[in-house]
Each structure stands twice: as structure tokens, then as C-alpha cells.
Target: Nicotinate phosphoribosyltransferase
Amino acid sequence: MNTADLGLPVDVPSTALFTDQYELTMLQAALKAGTAERRSVFEVFTRRLPEGRRYGVVAGTGRVLDAIENFRFDADVLGFLRERNIVDEQTLARLADYRFSGDVWGYPEGEVYFPGSPIMRVEGTFAECVLLETVILSILNHDSAIAAAASRMSSAAGDRPLIEMGARRTHELAAVAASRAAYLGGFASTSDLAAGFRYGIPTVGTSAHAFTLLHDRERDAFRAQVDSMGRGTTLLVDTYDVAEAVRTAVEIAGPELGAVRIDSGDLLLVAHRVRQQLDELGATGTKIIVTSDLDEYAIASLAAAPVDAYGVGTQLVTGSGHPTCSMVYKLVARAGSADPGAALVPVAKKSTGGKTSIGGRKWAARRLDEYGVAEAEVVGTGAVPAELADRQLLVELVKGGDVVAREPLDAVRDRHVAARGNLPLSATQLSRGEPVIPTEYVNGRSGNRAGA
Amino acid sequence: MNTADLGLPVDVPSTALFTDQYELTMLQAALKAGTAERRSVFEVFTRRLPEGRRYGVVAGTGRVLDAIENFRFDADVLGFLRERNIVDEQTLARLADYRFSGDVWGYPEGEVYFPGSPIMRVEGTFAECVLLETVILSILNHDSAIAAAASRMSSAAGDRPLIEMGARRTHELAAVAASRAAYLGGFASTSDLAAGFRYGIPTVGTSAHAFTLLHDRERDAFRAQVDSMGRGTTLLVDTYDVAEAVRTAVEIAGPELGAVRIDSGDLLLVAHRVRQQLDELGATGTKIIVTSDLDEYAIASLAAAPVDAYGVGTQLVTGSGHPTCSMVYKLVARAGSADPGAALVPVAKKSTGGKTSIGGRKWAARRLDEYGVAEAEVVGTGAVPAELADRQLLVELVKGGDVVAREPLDAVRDRHVAARGNLPLSATQLSRGEPVIPTEYVNGRSGNRAGA
Model:
């Protein structure tokens, strides 16, 4: 099947269309003005964390690399741009040849970040860098928002596994990216088959209330499920009366019953009752999974309850109150001419009324205290102080247009655990607060010509 | 280019993977139990509107129809399910032949809805209907959330056009659906090229701060833009000093300057100052576009300001505080046997602790008062009262597996304006409140065998 037949926006033939029109009109104007080839440095950063959050989580980097690699304007796209008269023929010719040939550095995926952290830096000609703004921000803003929520939930859950089950609460393809972000933020599995297919994330699932309602008696449904999936399955026990369902479940599956799932009611109370009942019935190994409108606070409040796993939907895929980050992609330095050797000049918006930036190509390092715990995010221009040289955060991701830093999702997941574990303990407190470490700016002598 | 090379989740070969695993395991268990062929009725509804909202907006219906039509399990997908051992061979064989052959009725896209409105009804065998749950909910929950925010913003904006520019704040493909939902909710255009490509939505865009910063002087940037795009373009005037930028803009473009854009600061104050300055400079026809972190409240607060158009990003694509709806897909009736002629039995979850539903296949009608204004959403089972017969809301969307109700997006957009206009005036008040009309339930005699 041709994906163009899907009737979904998946027939977009290239990531190049995930772009705001003004990126193209800026290119056209710069080409005409002779400024399009000026060497330019764009940085992705955020001026603040979502209110009350202690740290951010970098997520989506791997998807950004894929998007850059596939950012091409094919005949269909060029035909669309021509037909709509969006840019002129000179610009179309330039787009037809587009291939990013610059460099990208960034925080490795899974790292934590803070206000002002230069999360990603894109360097090349203005022409090639400006076009990437929209797709880079779409991916990082979405995925990082989900990963931040996932990270808080996984802190709250401790050793108990978290199941991502929010596909039905968000756009069908955002759901796939959300599963990926949840996994890197500490979730164990997903209900979303597309996420399993695309990213190899473990998938889980057994049955819904509809399955119980389909059958004439709850007992028939349980019997059918155990016959089909074995005694190790998870039976959903809150369609009618929970106590009766638990009794029936153990009667049918025996004490080898894998788990019961509770999807409504006062979970703390019900979990305790169900645990006691299971134990009395001899099903001491049967687990309890809860899945009703959980967020990190609800998960934390169940820490003392006899719960073995959590399923999280809505609050995960909507970033638990913060469905996007406020990452921006800003020109921070550019050459004064199109000469490839021209010096870079730091630039920044300066208007009053907020949205100011700090110009210049930046480095970042995380300073540790004597116990090896992070104590500051240090961001600077110019030379990196010697004592921070081995604590630098940016790594090379794309070199001369070639992706050089692909990595498996499990490595990203491990990195996040390590990065979070290196923060002060209060990072994982759920209560609202300031970023757990401050961001310090160091304005060194101009090092804008130097590599990172 | 093969979209499988995109490295994005667009290489999902079918909408059938946008599915929670339990839909498939339920199918397997039902096949084994002999209950998979029981005729079943599933309904999509929501138990409540997002807090404070007066009405909901049905959006995504057209995308759902596409998703159903393309819901197929091809060799790649079946291979994945087999390799992961998700379902058995009997179930795989069934999936290989899957094609929805049932009926779908629903509120036409663009209609308003209320708690309990049967927004969509899917009828067929349990086997064919249960699998569609996840993708239907993903689409409707996402698109309706965006459309509801768009509708409130367009009420607040009155006759002033709204530009959707939130692509960078959400998943790159969710952004395309968000543009579509925004357009049907009353927006005039989008910055997102993919939305223009896929749905024919008008696209707009001129330049960002980066373009001004690229040039040695703001004047050079303005000159370059006017040279490239003509005097009718929109110049961004808040990179440095707004008053100076406006002076320079009119100096370069003359009074024919199309518009200036303000993206930071106190918009009410700045808009007044800029309007006065433009008028003094003779640029009385030059428009003012504002674009800084707007939501429906900010738009309303600018009603008396000399603003000609609004650009909205973050708050649109995140549903202005409500990024998802709480629509569910519930089995409300099913046959007592696999006999195609067997009577339908209403079913509903009955456990205490919330999440209860009303069983039975439902009709819905909007009752009008003597002035033709909506006064109640009437939802019932059984026969439709004669006085409501011509006010019924559900229309046939899929008949025997064939989509029968495709329509252009502009028709959907017009329908929304009409539907909203038929509500009591308080519907468009932005302040928090109850649903603007109540939902009344009518339990008629059993009509579960009858057509809609």
C-alpha cells in the first residue's frame, strides 16, 4: 500500500513540509539580498521551565536527526510551492538542491536541562539553518514535554513499572512519539502497537470493560480471557462489583492469576481491599495494576498502597499540565559577509518587553560540588574555563551534514536515569519549586570562531 | 522517496497500528469463545466538557473516515504481531482479512456537542468494531480539543482574521491536524506548509527576528524583504526599538506597506502607539498584526485595540488549557448470540466509583425554543419523539463499510459557524460556566433493533 492512500497526513513526502512558510520567504529575501550565505549559528533554548518544574528532559534528539537527514524538497513539494506562489523560481531552484551540510551540536538525548541551556546548536549558512527551525522545535518541544512528565512519574513510581497507555488521548502519531519519550523517561512499556513497531518498545495489553460487557456473565468473559491468554493474564475487575469479580477471577484462573486491573474508584482503598482479598484466596502472587486518571501526584499517593504497576494515559501524553516546552530557535551569531572566513558577530533581539536573548555561540557545562552532585548549569560564550573542560554538555550530532551520533533508545533511557541521579535530591520532589540548580552565565572573551 | 526512509513514524504502513494491544487480545479471546461475531454497538461520548467550557466542537470526523477506510493489516504488520507473539495464528488470519463492513453514524463534523452527546456510533460485529477504538479516539480527542479552542478564539476575534502558527509547539504531524481543526473552528490561515499541502488551507508567513538579526542594520533587512516580497508585505517591528522600526518601515515601503507585526511587549499599549505613528506617517492603510502568546482571553482584551489580525500558536495547538477531550468509546449494546438476527441487549459498566455509562443505542436531537435557539440536547434510547424527529443530530457516515459522507473542509467550517450561532448567546462568553444547554435523557421503549 502506498502511504499516500492512507488519507492521513502521512503522505507528506518529506520532513521539509513541517515548516512555517516564513522560513522560505526569509530564504527568498536573503538570497536576493546576498545575505543567505552568511555563516550563522542558531541555538535552541528555553527561557524558563514550566511553572514549578525542577528540571527539563531533552527528548526528541534522535527524531530531529532523522528529520534533518530527510529534509528534502521533492517534485511534489516544489510543485505545491510553485502553484501557491509561495516563493520565486530562484528560491525553488535552491530548495530543489537543499541538503543540510552544516554542523549540529547538542545536549545528548536523555540529559536534563535548565533555563538557558543551549540544548541544540545548528551552524551553517543562514539559508540552510533557517529552514530547519520549525521541525526541530516541533519535535523537541513535544517530545521533551512528554519526557519531563514521564521522568516525574517514574521518580514517583520508584521500582514499580509504568505502562504508557495514552494513545487514545492524543494525535495518533504524536502518540507514537509520546510512547518513545515516555520510555526514555523511565516507562517500562506501552499499549501502542505503532510504538512497538517503530521503536521496539515492549507492548502490553489484555482487555477492556467492553470484553466483559460482550459476554452474558463476567464469569464467561474471565473464562474466555484465561482460555485465550493463560492464567498469567490480567483480569479487569471493576466492571460490576470488584469483590465479586476478584472472587470469580481467582476461582477461574486459580492462584496463578497474573494480575487484576482496577480502573475506577478510590484506588488506595480498593487496592488495599483487593490485596487482602487476593491474599485470603491464596493468590498471594497475583499482582494489582491500577489505571485510572493517574498523574505523578496520584502515583506518589499510592506509594504505600499494595500496587504493583501503574498504567498512565491522559496525563502522560499531555505532559501532566505542560503539553509543550517553550523552546525557541534563535540566531545568536552570524558572519558580517558571505565570505566563508568572515568573523561571527553575536546578535540578539533587544526590544523591551521580554523575549530578549544572549548573543554569541555558547558552551555549557554542569558544575559539580565536592560530592559529585550538580550545583550549577554554567553557560558561556568564549573560552571554556579549564575546570569545566571535562564537564561540557554539548556533543557533536551532525558533522558537515552527516549524522554522527545515532544511538539506541535504551542508551538514552540509561543516560536519563544517570543524569537525573546526579542532580540534588530535591530534583525529584514533586512539589512546585525553582529549577533545582541555577544557570550561571559566563561572558568570556570572544571565542566565536572556535569550534565547540 | 520511500516514506519508510523518513525515519519518522510515518513509515507505519497502515492506520491499523494506531491501536492499543488489548483490542487485538480481546479479539483473540472472543474468537476462541465464539463471541467475536456478536453484533455490537459502540458509542463515542464524553461524560463532561473540560472545566468551564460551554460547548464542545466535533472535529476529526473526516480523518476518522480515512482511518477506517485504511485500517488494514498488511504483511509487515502481521509479521510484527507474529514475531512479538501478540496474538495467535487464528487471530492473525482474521486480521489479514480485516475490512470494516459495519455502519457508522455520527454528529456531522463541525457540530457542537455536550456531555452525553453520542458523537459517533459504530455498529457491526464485536470483532470489527472493537479494533477501531484507539484510532477513532485519538483523532476525535485531539482534533476536537483544538477545534474547541479555535472556536472560542474566533468568537473572541470577531471579524478579525486569525492565523494558526503553532506548528513548532506540538508534534509535527499533530500540527497538521491542528491546522485543520483550527480552520474548521474559524481560523483563516496557517503558517504550516504541510497543512496547506494536505488540506488546502491558505498559508501565510513573511519573516522572523532572525531575518532582521542576519542583516547589519534593521533597515537593510526591511529593504531586503520589501525588495523580495513587495510593499504589501508584513514587517516585524519589535527586534530593537519599535518606534524606530515603524519609522524605517514606512520610509522604505511607503504608505503602501501591507502590515507591521508586533511579537512582544504590552500589545494593547504598543498597538495604540503604532497605529498612531502609522497614521501620522500617512500609512493609514497599513495593518497591525499581533502574535505574542495569545489565547482567547488576550484576543478579547484586544477587542478595542487597533489590531487587524491575530497570530496564535501555543495556546491553539495545546487546546488553550485542554489539550484533549475525554471522549470514550463504549460498548452500549450487543447481541446475546452470534446469530445475525439476535436482539441487541443494552449493556453498561455498573461499578461504583464513577465511569458509569448509559446502555443502549442512542439517538440525539437538539430541541429549540420558540425563537429557534437551542434549549436542550436530548439523548435517548428507543423511539424518537415525533416533535424531535426533524432535529436529529446523527447522520450516516459509513454504510456497510463504505464511506458515504465525505465533504469539503469549507462545508465543515460553515457548519460550525451555523451550529454555534444557534446556541444561546452565552455560549460565546469566555468566562467559565456550565454547558450552555443541558443534556436531557429520554428512556423510550426498546428501539435497539431499529435503524437510527
Remarks:
- Residues 155-321 of chain B form a domain with the TIM Barrel fold (CATH 3.20.20.70).
- DSSP finds 15 helices and 18 strands in chain B.
- The two ends of chain B are 45 Å apart (CA to CA).
- The longest helix of chain B spans residues 133-157.
